[in-house]
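job 3f2a | input accepted
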Amino acid sequence: MGQQEYDNFKRLIKEWLDSHPDEYADFVEEMNDKKFKGFFNIFNTAVRLVPKYKEAARKRIGDDRNPDFEELENVLLQSDLAEKIVNEFHTPNKRSIVPAMLAWLYYGRSYECMVEQGEELTKRKDIPTLYKWLVSGMVKFIIRKSIANGMRTKEDWQVFRKQQKAI
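job 3f2a | predicted structure (167 res):
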């Protein structure tokens, strides 16, 4: 996808966001749900679009030797996931979370929400230490990736941390 196509796609996502405020609000509410309902929906969508992802995620969760998530990311990158998501966005389906998910990723507090939810998980007493360690690594990965892909800056994360401390 060239820059002009990408810019046009972002514009279409913004138009969807502006014309579907209720659907977007419902999605955001799910993403902030303390039972992680929205995250499970995203995971299930990823598995539907990339069936190999489920086994890769299972293997990653069971491997405590590597704090990195590059391998999981590579499964998605090598699967034409982006193309599948774009196609699903352009194929209207009331049950699809893809339009709301893209609006959230591009225009919402997506990265901040992922970090907040992850950090919330690490504080829970019912979560095994191994999972807390994995989640902690995922939080760092999310922050690093958000900076690397230009969606957030280091300064954005500093402001976020100050806001968290103020609460």
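job 3f2a | The chain has two domains: 1-108, 109-167.
job 3f2a | closed
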